[in-house]
Amino acid sequence: MLVIDSTHRWTPALDRVLTISLILFVVFSMFSISITQIAFAIGTVAWLTKVSLTQSWKRVRFPLGIPFLLFIVACILAVVTAVDPGYSVKPLKKLLQILIFFWAVNSIRDERQRDFLVLLLVVAGCAAASYGIYQGLLTPVTTATRVEGTMSIYMTFAGILMLVGLVALGRFLLRKPRENWLGVAVLLIIVCLLLTLTRQAWLGFLTGLIFLVFVWKTRLLWGIPILLVLALLFAPAGVKERMHSMVDLTDWTLQSRLALWQGGWQVFKDYPLTGCGFRCMDLVHTNYPDPTGYIKKYRGMHNNFVQLAVDTGLLGLTAWMSIWACYFLALFKRARGPGENSSPRWVIHGSAAAVLGFLAGGFFEVNFYDSEVAMLLYFIMALPFAAEKSDKETLAKN
């Protein structure tokens, strides 16, 4: 019989390390990928060490473990069967980021700590957004001078702002009593998000917004078009221009994406099962027609689904899509509470809105391959599954 020693002498120290690593991860996810990765690495080692010393492996929870495992296997197969396995193997290290999900699920102790981490993330997002707005005030915002904020590129900055903004909006709309300062925080993030001129992040935020308003008060959905009209009327010229381009079917960025997707389809047909390996477009693009020159120029597909189909084939794409299907199914079960698998509404729907925003934006950008965005996404995905014991106790009291 397995005896669980939860009072090991190193447990308090490891708990402190876990707390500090979670805090550092949350704060610096908005500012520094290096510190974020270090915090995650230290936290993961502390978590696994604690589980090993206390002999509590049977208590470790692995929600979504099967779809994640299938995706990992599909990625390994894609590299083994790649056009050049040596060239494709390096991106496999990104699979380690999946551990963030399980680390957060098993390391966030209770509802109080989860709330603290979420609010800390929102505060960090406000600080990053404030810096981005300051950049926008210094230099008129155009496609040549987009706000990059605390990141090295505007697309990454917009992606993390979108995720944080939707989590904050979910808590603002659905948690009782309402925390009014979160409304100001969301507005600040939206303003900065607009200044990035990143349309895929705008689309993602709009998708999450529609979902949250539908869940909150469906009858208020009519107000979203009014907000869009107001934004179009009063936004800076650069923002207005980008908004207009979103409905312009002749826009060159749309045409370039269509050309990339067509090229990706041609490659996928030649490597349908396991793909041609990560970064394989660098090696095979010259074997396919490229009348526009966009494939040679970008080599990325600007679409998560097309990119994964090219890189990992039907097996990888199906496994990746199964992650999201299982994730939303699990959230649906929790949302049906009260019950043993229930969680607070704002946690469930805020997390779901962020993932919906990520997936919507991924139709026009390969944001899944963006480490800063993916790492924060995994953390946000973990929130409804973390602090499960505390949630049950809260529901029982209510």
Structural commentary:
Helix 6 crosses helix 8 (181-195) and helix 12 packs across helix 15. This protein has helices spanning 11-28, 33-53, 65-80, 85-88, 99-107, 111-138, 154-174, 181-195, 199-216, 223-234, 237-245, 252-270, 281-284, 294-298, 304-335, 345-361, 371-382, 388-397. By secondary structure, it is an all-alpha fold. It folds into 2 domains: 1-60; 61-397, no CATH class. 68% of the residues lie in helices and 0% in strands. Residues 1-5 and 390-398 have low confidence and may be disordered. It contains 18 helices and no strands.
Report the span from N to C terminus.
37 Å
Number of domains: 2
Number of helices: 18
Structural class: mainly alpha
- Portion of residues in beta strands equals under 5%
Mean pLDDT: 91
Main beta-sheet annotation: none
Instruction: Indicate the radius of gyration in whole angstroms.
Output: 22 Å
Helix share of residues?
55-70%
Order of helices and strands: HHHHHHHHHHHHHHHHHH
Question: Can I get a quick summary?
Answer:
This protein is mainly alpha-helical. It has helices at 11-28, 33-53, 65-80, 85-88, 99-107, 111-138, 154-174, 181-195, 199-216, 223-234, 237-245, 252-270, 281-284, 294-298, 304-335, 345-361, 371-382, 388-397.
